[in-house]
Structure formats: structure tokens, C-alpha cells
Predict the 3D structure of the following.
Amino acid sequence: MSTLQQQFNNDGYVILRDFLDKDLINSIYTEARKIFAAQIKRVTGKSVDIDDKDAFENAMFEFFEKDFNAFVNTGKTVQHSFSLHRLGVDPQIERLLKQVGLENPIIGARPAMQFNSRFLSKDGSKHWKLDAHQDWRTGQGSLDSTVIWFPMVDAGADIGALQVIPGSHKTGLKESNTSGYQGGITAGINDNEFIQTEFKVGDILVFSAFLIHQSGNNITNNIRWSVQLRYNNLEEPTFIERGYPMAYIYAPEKELVTPNFPSVEQLQTVFS
Ligand SMILES: O=C(O)CCC(=O)C(=O)O
């Protein structure tokens, strides 16, 4: 067994320094900001320079305040970008998953991106950050289900990089509530057990879906942009036995999102 896999099995995670090409990360980050910029223009009337970090992120906050629904949908749209999906199936990622023990990896859920900032929360709610949780509860895939997490900006404690409890992946699936996106573990957790991780752009965290982790506290005025990639192992016996369960439900809206749209004229214009 490789040292990497030993460390992964033992701690439930590994951090690989300088693993991803910075240009590749930047292409994902740039595509995401361009998508947001288009809606920022529509909602606030401002053309923002995506490379002027503070101005751009202030415009993100204004967009969030002015049209929450569009902000949420734009947040989902960036998760559908070509650059992000290309990375999710990159041979470098596939090799890495095999190295930590997934003989035959398959995507567990579509790639996700998070924009963590207290200025992107409603009514002072804490939903901009995730409480202690295990991703397996929402994915319910193979027992060796694995997550890759990385920030697209340098991320230490101040900007709230992830906090993990080493070895917690072997302590079982914890009771949890359904608050927020991933829920929160309700059984007593000792806060002192969390380790604060730190990253430069290019570093990645690979962790077992059973590892207990939580968002750090972003006390800066900037957004902590990060990506999460989730995988299962098609060869894991209990995953096969349980009929390849798929707990992520993608369902279409039942009603038209934009009532009485489109008109015949609009369609004729598109196809003229
Ligand atoms: O990026 C974060 O703050 C939380 C991400 C996370 O815990 C997850 O996606 O499971």
C-alpha cells in the first residue's frame, strides 16, 4: 500500500501541496466570475472588472441583496461550467482517486462551488458556512466515497478554510439534523479535535466522505471561493449490493419558471 493511501486510511484525509495547475484553477475561477458579472450587470447596472477583487466582490454582495433568487440560480449555473466539469474528470484526478483506493471511480454528484462570506447570508443566518458534518450522509454512496476540496484563492484560518477531525472517518455515521445544505452533527463533538487546514492555490484536500469536517470562520471581507468534487467507487461491494443508490436528486421545476414564456415571436427570432 502506498504511503499516500496509508495516510489517507489512517487520518481520513491528505493534503497535496501544489497538486493542481494554477492556470487550470484560474480558468474555473475566471469562468465563474464572468458568469456572475453578467448577472451583476443586469441586476445592478454595473460593469465590474472581475480582476478588481474588492470591487467585484462588493458587487457580488450587492447582487445578493438585490436579487437573491437570481444569485442562487447564478451560483448553481457556475457549477455547470465546462472548465469545472473538465477538471472533475481529469486523468490526474482519476489517478489520484485510484491511489487512495477507489479502483473504479465514478462521479458521486455534480461538481460544486461555494462562495463563503458572511455578506452572502440572509438575516444574519449562519448558512454561509457549514456546520460539522460527514458528506456521506448526503451522498450515501460507496463506503470509500471520497471528496476533493480546494480553494481557488489562498485560504488559511482567516478566510475560513475547512476544519477537519483526523481519524473521525472510522468512528461511524453520526446522528445529524437537516439544517443547511449538508446538515449538522448533533452528537457532542469536542471543538478542540478540529484541525484548521491551510492552502495556497494549487493545494488540494482529499478526504473520506465519513470524515467529520466543517467550514472555518471567514472573518475577512472577501469571499472564500472553493470547489468540491465527489466520487464513489463502483467496485465497493456494499455499493454494488445496495444497487448503486443515488441520493442526490436532480428534479425539474414543476411549473414554468418564467410564466407565459416564451412567445412564438421570440422563438422565431432565435431561429431566424
Ligand atoms: O467549503 C466549505 O466551507 C464547506 C464544504 C464542505 O464541507 C462540503 O462541501 O462538504
User: Anything to note?
Assistant: The chain has a mean pLDDT of 95. The radius of gyration is 20 Å. Strands lie at 13-16, 105-116, 146-151, 163-164, 176-177, 184-185, 195-196, 204-208, 213-214, 224-233. The domain at 3-19+88-270 is CATH 2.60.120.620 (Jelly Rolls).
